[in-house]
Write a structure and sequence with these properties.
The chain has 369 residues and is an alpha+beta fold. The chain has eleven helices and seven strands. α1 runs antiparallel to α6, α3 runs antiparallel to α4 and α4 packs parallel to α6. InterPro entries: DGC-Regulatory_Protein (IPR052163), GGDEF_dom (IPR000160), Nucleotide_cyclase (IPR029787), Rev_trsase/Diguanyl_cyclase (IPR043128).
């Protein structure tokens, strides 16, 4: 769900900022819980009140974040609360010691992590102005503390400010890594979807063979890259009795016949040859060979022998013959369209012969049957 202010809610929340706000809130509350007792023990009640109030506001802000899921508003509340707490504490103790000023260096890091470039510029500017302002003002000491207590407070501020900076950077790097992993996973899913749609666009779902579009594209590529000593032969193959199977036993049996025939045809070709289903009962193949090779005739002979064995269609034995037409580039023609036409005509010439047979485009009688 998406809200009107651009913040995605529940299903698509700004998860990275959401978790970072909770991380930083948890860290600041721990710091408050450790500093407040120390200051209370030393009876620095104004500091206790300011830091305690800041901790309560930050805690309430985390509850608001969980309920509203508004990372923008809650991010600004967290940074402003931290900034005002630091400013107020600096005003109280500047005349005693300057260790509180280093907390201003935390503000730009929070802004960059939680509210982006705009927030980084704004909060960095006001933090810098505060540092300059406090360094130029002459503020009388609000507290009169012993030197050893000043040392303890200074070391405490340095320690906790350093820990806050380190843990925030660690959490930010962790969230960035998580975000990169999510992007990588989504890119992987997009790649899978792209491959799936490409497969649907170029492959026949029944036989899992390339379809007509892929066949024509591949044939054009083969012809374009054909060397002077090579030939490419196109096979047009047609199952002779598919219509009878569909009419007599139903299209489900016809699909079984097509799937089994596709496997037999594919096994008869070489590994680097290209076999496709054009549609209906028509299959085609692309065979690259040298001028003097008889490879196309040998493959056609293997197909005819393979179709001598019956098909098993739901426990029913059924014999189906196949008609094969061959056309060769550059011997017969040199264009994709003409190759397909001549192979198709040769296939219909083979159909005139009873049983499985093969004809070449240059022949007027079958090559063999």
């Amino acid at each position: 769900m998406i809200s009107h202010n651009g913040q995605t809610r529940y299903g698509g929340i700004h998860v990275r900022q959401y978790r970072l706000i909770l991380y930083i809130t948890f860290e600041l509350i721990i710091v408050c819980a450790m500093i407040v007792p120390l200051y209370a023990y030393k009876k620095l009640w104004y500091l206790v009140a300011i830091i305690g109030l800041g901790g309560i506001i930050i805690l309430l802000n985390s509850i608001l974040l969980i309920r509203s899921r508004n990372t923008s508003v809650c991010g600004h509340i967290l940074i402003l609360t931290t900034f005002l707490t630091i400013t107020s504490a600096n005003y109280l103790v500047w005349g005693v010691g300057t260790s509180y000023s280093l907390w201003f260096y935390v503000i730009p890091l929070f802004a960059a992590s939680l509210v982006g470039w705009g927030g980084l510029f704004f909060y960095s500017t006001i933090a810098l102005l505060m540092i300059i302002g406090f360094s130029t003002l002459s503020i009388p000491p609000f507290y009169h503390l012993a030197p050893h207590l000043l040392t303890i407070i200074g070391r405490t501020n340095h320690l906790f400010a350093y820990l806050i900076i380190v843990t925030t950077v660690v959490n930010l790097m962790h969230e960035n890594k998580r975000y990169e992993q999510i992007l990588h996973y989504k890119n992987h899913l997009l790649g899978v979807e792209k491959d799936k749609y490409q497969h649907l666009a170029y492959f026949d779902p029944l036989t899992n063979l390339p379809n007509r579009q892929y066949f024509k594209k591949h044939l054009q590529e083969v012809i374009d890259s054909l060397s002077t000593n090579d030939c490419v032969t196109v096979f047009f193959m047609d199952l002779d009795n598919l219509k009878y199977v569909n009419d007599y036993w139903g299209h489900d049996m016809g699909d079984h016949l097509l799937a089994q025939a596709a496997k037999r045809i594919h096994l008869c070709f070489r590994e680097n040859d290209f076999v496709a289903r054009l549609g209906g009962d028509e299959f085609t193949g692309i065979v690259l060979h040298s001028q003097d090779e008889m490879t196309p005739q040998e493959i056609a002979q293997r197909i005819i022998h393979a179709f001598e064995q019956p098909f098993t269609l739901k426990k029913v034995k059924y014999h189906s013959s196949i008609s094969i037409g061959l056309s060769t580039c550059p011997n017969d023609t040199q264009t994709v369209v003409d190759l397909m036409i001549k192979a198709d005509l040769a296939m219909y010439a083979a159909k005139e012969i009873k049983g499985s047979s093969c004809c070449k485009a240059s022949q007027s009688i079958p090559d063999f049957n």
